[in-house]
Amino acid sequence: MKFTYYGHACFMVETAGKKLLFDPFITGNALAKDIDVKKIEADYILVSHGHGDHVGDMAAIAQNTGATVIAAAEVAGWAHQNGCEKVHGINFGSMQFDFGKLRFVPASHSSSMPDGSYGGNPGGFVISNDEGAFYYAGDTGVITDMQLIPRFVKLSFAVLPIGGNYTMDAEEAILAADFIQCDKIVGVHFDTFEVIRIDHEAVAKQFAAAGKTLILPEIGKEIAL
């Protein structure tokens, strides 16, 4: 699978011949100033919850690409009302798409849309197909529900927030990695704002001491996972 990071909690995974873009927030992120949103291609846009730092560029990219927005029913409805022609509303459970099986799983966070309307339940995504499986936790603290994930799939990697304050920090993400039985972790949701700045070297050492590999992706760079 190919992974491209666009800053904050926004990234692309290319798998099964499809481009899956998660939580598009780019133009509002000063750290992603060199990313041209108009050049991003996507077949699907997967949104974990309704906060502005996860849906900021959703409508623009959906309109540019014709991508289908997959999100909790309330977020999908809001997306349709705000210019996204193709939406697929979901709730906790599993469903089959042409890129593989998707499970929408609980997250411990909040969710409201940029206009203050109800954003439904926040969640995370587990994607599995013949190429492997991965988990994106969305914005969350560590929760015991994560222990259910390895009952369904063996994860190749997981994408976890590590910045703290609004989500898990590194210590909690290490526990989450234990819960999901995955030792290859891609860290996101860090450095964008002052309150979520991290010490990269110190955090990497924490993960290494726990026997896990932490990848802190560089904005705009593609890596193979």
TrEMBL record:
One of its GO terms (molecular function) is hydrolase activity. Keywords: Hydrolase. It comes from the Bacteria. SMART domains: Lactamase_B. Residues 7-189 form the Metallo-beta-lactamase domain. It holds the Pfam family Lactamase_B_2. InterPro entries: Metallo-B-lactamas, RibonucZ/Hydroxyglut_hydro, UPF0173, UPF0173_UPF0282_UlaG_hydrolase. Gene3D superfamilies: Ribonuclease Z/Hydroxyacylglutathione hydrolase-like. Coiled coil: none annotated. Belongs to the UPF0173 family. This is UPF0173 metal-dependent hydrolase DN068_11850. It comes from Taibaiella soli.
